[in-house]
Design brief:
Dihydrodipicolinate Reductase, domain 2; binds oxaloacetate ion; binds 1,4-dihydronicotinamide adenine dinucleotide; Rossmann fold; 11 strands; globular; alpha/beta; five-stranded mixed sheet
Length: 252
């Protein structure tokens, strides 16, 4: 059975812990020790107060559900300790220098870094962008004021530009745009809207290229404990963990 170390014990961490059974959570770490202890109580994992002790525990893969800064700080060490890694805070990988470091560390240690589809559909075939021309790659995201942590009395656009810029201002809200960019091999355009009339997280993907064109609209239920994070994002980690044990791989 797959043995997991959980880095980040907030909303997604708790959902993962509630689904343990097909995998085992061996160790947990959070910068807020009480959160790690909550998951220790649910799952029987050991909660560590220091990252350096956590990373030495006996598990195969770190599941990161913490923050962009946590990935920047800890991902190289995770790989150097011979563990695979699932990264939810994909925004950390916008910097090509850091991305190359992670790729080199993973190769050096024979490890893999997995980026789940997260809160969107359609990431699988977006990878054709690396072998065939895409002329349009746009994410239009609409979230509530609570999800974005800003006040708004009417719908308004709060960002228009490239994914690698947007993630700097909204590191908890547009990791999906960076996942799209990494899949397609080109920086996605992002339009971000705040709308007091919505209480769901809406992601619309507009893609055009030599293959033809597509439009995907995902109307996401927010997670119970964090309105910025769609429930689908947590489900997508669970499905990734599940398929790791299956020799038949579905989807590109
Ligand atoms: N790729 C995707 O599609 C999506 C990615 N996300 C990202 O996933 C991550 C987790 O999401 P949630 O569980 O909803 O967030 P959350 O805020 O509920 O939980 C994050 C937990 O990580 C801990 N943490 C943060 N930085 C840390 C550090 N440096 N070291 C140790 N612990 C640290 C926090 O104390 C907190 O307990 C966030 O970065 C979020 O933006 C969320 C939704 C979709
Ligand atoms: O969960 C979502 O809707 C998307 C999200 O927060 C992110 O990509 O960072």
């Amino acid at each position: 059975m797959l043995r997991i170390g959980l880095l980040g014990c907030g909303n997604i961490g708790h959902i993962i812990a509630r689904h343990a059974g097909r995998f085992t959570i061996v160790a947990v770490f959070d910068q807020v020790p009480d959160r790690a202890r909550e998951i220790e109580a649910i799952s029987g994992a050991t909660a560590y107060r220091e990252f350096d002790s956590f990373i030495q525990a006996g598990f195969d893969i770190v599941v990161e559900a913490a923050s962009v800064s946590a990935v920047k700080r800890h991902a190289p060490d995770v790989l150097a300790h011979g563990k695979d890694m699932v990264i939810m805070s994909v925004g950390a990988l916008t910097d090509p220098g850091f991305r190359n470091l992670i790729r080199a560390k993973a190769r050096e240690n024979g490890r893999k870094v997995y980026i789940p589809s997260g809160a969107i559909f359609g990431l699988d075939n977006l990878k054709i962008g690396r072998i065939s021309t895409l002329r349009k790659l746009l994410l239009r995201t609409t979230k509530s004021p609570a999800a974005l942590g800003i006040e708004a009395h009417e719908r308004r656009q709060i960002f228009a530009g490239k994914a690698n810029e947007c993630i700097k201002s909204f590191p908890k809200n547009v990791n999906v745009s960076v996942a799209m960019s990494l899949a397609a091999g080109m920086d996605a355009d992002v339009e971000l809207f705040v709308d007091p009339a919505v209480d769901q997280n809406v992601h619309e993907l507009f893609i055009e290229g030599d293959f033809g064109e597509t439009y995907v609209r995902v109307t996401n239920m927010p997670s119970p404990d964090n309105p910025a994070t769609s429930y689908l994002a947590a489900l997508s980690v669970l499905s990734l963990l599940e398929k790791m044990d299956d020799p038949i791989v579905v989807g590109t």
